[in-house]
Amino acid sequence: MTSAACASTKRLTGVSLSSLRNGVVHAFRSDDLVDDIMRTAPHTIRVFLAFRMACVGCPIATFHTVEDACREHGIDRKKFLAALCDCVPA
User: Fold this and answer.
1) In angstroms, rounded to a whole number, what is the distance separating the alpha carbons of residues 48 and 30?
2) For the whole model, what pTM was predicted?
3) Which residues pair with 65 in a beta bridge?
4) Rounded distance, CA 25 to CA 62, Å?
5) Topology (CATH level 3) of domain 17-86
6) Backbone dihedral region of 74: left (phi > 0), alpha (psi from -120 to 50 degrees) or beta?
7) Over its length of 90 residues, how does the chain's per-residue pLDDT go in tens digits?
8) In Å, how far are 13, 14, 22, 49 from 45, measured between CA atoms?
9) How far is it, in rounded angstroms, from Cα 32 to Cα 68?
10) CB contact at 8 A, 11 and 5
11) N or C: which end of the chain has fewer CB within 10 A?
């Protein structure tokens, strides 16, 4: 994985964002597309808003990874990924 997985998530190799669709794994990575995260896990939208990231509804979100969005908005990537993981329902 390119980023730290959530503390409550088992470390699995090869886990992709698509595994979130069934609510099985909650491992967000810095190379996940912003739009994919928000569509697959809509409860994460509040994290984007809390960090004042205007990604919700932005046409660039379909191309930007978490890494890209954090860099563009001046957000610490590790803190943002941790917040995404913390918002995931148990």
Assistant:
1) 14
2) 0.69
3) 33
4) 22
5) SP0561-like (1.10.3910)
6) left
7) 333 334 333 333 344 444 444 454 557 899 999 999 999 999 999 999 999 998 999 999 999 999 999 999 999 999 999 999 888 665
8) 26, 25, 18, 6
9) 10
10) yes
11) C
